[in-house]
Amino acid sequence: ITALSASGLPSRRFSFEGFLPQSNKEREEYLRSVCKDVRTMIFHISPHDTEKDITDLIEFLGDRQAVLAKEITKINEKYFPLTLSQIKEGFKSGEINPKGEFVLIVTGYEADESDMFWADMTIEQHFEHYVNLGLSKMDATKAVARDRGVPKNEIYKELN
């Protein structure tokens, strides 16, 4: 929370994601599940995995605005407000020392018009779209909520 509040990135809605999974399969599944999350995301970055973590985040999330916080609440506390690719380059060039404790704050997904196929649909039509694709009612409710950036209980109330 300290890093988020000092980052200057949107803090109204955020999620704490912790460390990325170590297993490649789990990591890929996880990153696919959060790639369209509209909330600001908070990650812990291990000094041993900085390059791999940042590379994978760029691959799945795109080159988003981010703030790398180093050594929070310590005398050498630093903040690097950059894009993910600039952070990666900073580690490569040595401009950012990879030793230490890191928290990475990444902006949420910003949908463009092609992602909003549902924009002219009612919630019921949007829900039926996912059910027709074979999702269970619960998963369809979650998908509609994720697309619209609202809690799933709001979608559930609207449908019942």
Please outline the helices and strands:
Elements: H1 2-7, E1 14-18, H2 24-34, E2 40-45, H3 50-61, E3 65-70, E4 78-83, H4 84-93, E5 102-106, H5 123-132, H6 137-148, H7 152-159
Parallel strand pairs: 1-2
Antiparallel strand pairs: 2-5, 3-4, 3-5
How would you portray this structure in words?
The chain is α+β, with helices and mostly antiparallel strands. It is built from seven helices and five strands, in the order αβαβαββαβααα. Strands 1-2-5-3-4 form a five-stranded mixed beta sheet. α2 (24-34) crosses α3, α3 runs antiparallel to α4 and α5 packs across α6 (137-148).
The helix tally amounts to 7
Distance between the termini: 36 Å
Provide the structure class.
Answer: alpha+beta
Count of β-strands? 5
Mean of all residue-level pLDDT scores: 90
Secondary structure: helix percent: 40-55%
Supply the key terms.
160 residues; alpha+beta; five-stranded mixed β-sheet; 7 helices; 5 strands
Structure, briefly:
By secondary structure, this protein is α+β, with helices and mostly antiparallel strands. It has helices at residues 2-7, 24-34, 50-61, 84-93, 123-132, 137-148, 152-159, and strands at residues 14-18, 40-45, 65-70, 78-83, 102-106.
